[in-house]
Amino acid sequence: MKSFKAACLQVNSGTDMMRNCEVAATLAVEARAAGADLILMPENVALMEWGRSALVLNAAAEEDHPALAFFRDLSREIGVWLHLGSLHILLDGGMIANRSFVIDPLGEIRARYDKIHMFDVDLGLGEVYRESSTFSPGNRSVAADLPWGRLGLSICYDLRFPQLYRDLAQAGCDFLTVPAAFTRTTGKAHWHVLLRARAIETGCYVFAPAQCGEHVNNRQTYGHALIVSPWGEILADALEQPGWVIAEIDPRRVGEARRKIPCLDHDRPFVPLRM
Fold first, then answer.
1. Left (φ > 0), alpha (ψ -120 to 50) or beta: where does 183 sit?
2. Number of other CB atoms surrounding residue 185 within 10 Å
3. Is 5 annotated in the active site?
């Protein structure tokens, strides 16, 4: 399998959807000019809003979503595989799906993934998140077949649930993506180590495009969009400002890492402590 270049975008999305899309598109065009064959965008790339009413007001059904149409056109224009980190897709009943899309160079949607794990946490000092009050969780793992291998999909808080990534790797995924709007509080403590752990556990490349900076309602995200090798090495780190990072991806390194430590083949049955 031949090598390719992957780029992860880092943005500071606000409440103006089309402006956010245009900023992301500018970065994508730059990354494509630098040789990127696969461009990955963060969670909430088109909108960072706060509060259920504002989120529902700005969500749209998939067939009517202006950001999805915009990015499908972009993938055609620059001839690139595009991973659209997530958009807010309005569902029947007034709930929202936090949904990723994989789009091919012809603008066709090749895969959809709805975020499974809801970020319902209290981080202290008034920093509280309740995604389950607005978002409907997905219930299935999803992968997309790319020209270079298989890409396993996830979003942000999913990162803390390693069983999802083990399932993806054992289903043949060579690459994992974790588009995120990770909080600054948790990012400082856990972002790098969790992404490296997921790569090491699975022998996969990990692509993690990210939101950065301050957003509406004083929300702060960590940045540090990362590309991690199957051996757990950080190949690129976008640090704290908007931009993009790029790395050469050699799919042969996936097999090399797994031959050295074939833990995906070493599962053993055991009696669980919790029945």
1. beta
2. 15
3. no
Tell me the C-alpha distance between 86 and 213, whole Å.
18
Domains of the chain: 4-260 (3.60.110.10)
pLDDT reported for residue 70? 98
With CA atoms as reference, report the closest residue to 140 among 116, 112, 161, 156: 116
Mean pLDDT, the chain cut into blocks of 10 residues (275 residues total): 96 98 98 98 97 94 98 98 98 95 98 97 90 96 98 98 98 98 97 98 98 96 98 98 98 98 96 88
Query: Would you state the pLDDT for residue 170?
Result: 98
The label of the residue with tokens 């042969």 reads 252
What is the token pair recorded at 21?
Answer: 């899309």
- Secondary structure of residue 75 in the 3-state scheme: helix
CA 30 to chain centre: 20
Residues 7, 269: Cα–Cα separation, whole Å: 39
Tell me which of 115, 173, 204, 212 is the catalytic residue: 115
pTM for the model stands at: 0.97
Give the chain's radius of gyration (CA, Å): 18
- Angstrom distance (rounded) from CA 89 to CA 63: 9
From the list 43, 49, 173, 212, the catalytic residue is 43
Cα atoms in the Cβ-side hemisphere of radius 13 Å centred on 156: 30
- d(Cα 107, Cα 123) in Å, to the nearest integer? 40
Residue 44 φ then ψ, to 5°: 55, 35
* 43 catalytically annotated: yes
260 in active site: no
Query: Can you tell me the distance from the alpha carbon of 70 to that of 5, in angstroms, rounded to the nearest whole number?
Result: 23
pLDDT value at residue 254: 98
